[in-house]
Amino acid sequence: MINTNLKFWRRELALTQAQMADKLGIKRSLVGAYEEGRAEPRLSTLVNMARLFGISLDQLVTTDFSKRKNAKAAASMRQLVPVAEGGDDEPTEPSPAGGKLRILALTVDKDQNENIEWVPQKAAAGYLNGYADPEYLEVLPKFRLPMLPPTGTYRAFEISGDSMLPIASGTVIVGRYVDEWQTLKDGTPCIVVSNRDGIVFKRVYNKLRQNAMFALHSDNQQYSPYDINANDVLEIWEAKSYISSTFPIADLSLERVASLVLDLQQQVAMLRKA
């Protein structure tokens, strides 16, 4: 029903394909492709559609609104809720993260391939306000990494501080967008964007089912772990790659040096016996 409903609601809202594309943060050609059934929208685009039309995701993909009377009035009175199993009349259980809809904005190149937007340190504060705004993302530097899996949406963040040594301050972390927070495995390195802490790079421990929290741990043991409420979190990006001009410092601790000396002594002794 996606293509049928997209055409129906665009006409109900008196929007051209170009105007609809602007509101969804996509190219006009994609709107045409979706309406003609030549392409299928990403989940993030479907969420944007449902929010714009004032209906649920379930209704968007299963209900033919072109056959309903007063569809616009009925939709305006319905409270938008996250997708859940069951029919329209079945109550939805609140998610551990407070049931908030997370809207992911993104940009594409001339061939409709998703870009990797880079958020440098100096843009970190502005990202908290513009992360869901396609116009803000449009001005960020962009690049592509062909070695990354084609499935998923990626974004790059320049980190600061020494809490995740040996990954140094100034390293660019490339993360894949995490839509289902409940699936995060304990100890996963992630970029966490929140109202409370801004943009941080930590290992995430999932405590959603216990108390709707995440525990954030640093690799540098001088930093203590702490909890953050899931309702304060805006985005989570699972770290998949990093770019750095600083190479990790070799482990030259006394124990390591002593081990190397012992190995050399043993090799010399074997050579003498030969």
Automatic annotation (TrEMBL):
Q: Which SUPFAM superfamilies match?
A: lambda repressor-like DNA-binding domains, LexA/Signal peptidase
Keywords in UniProt for this one?
DNA-binding, Transcription, Transcription regulation
Short name of one Pfam family: Peptidase_S24
Specify the HTH cro/C1-type domain's residue ranges: 6-60
Q: Which Gene3D superfamilies match?
A: lambda repressor-like DNA-binding domains, Umud Fragment, subunit A
Output this protein's name.
Answer: Helix-turn-helix domain-containing protein
Gene source species:
Hymenobacter aranciens
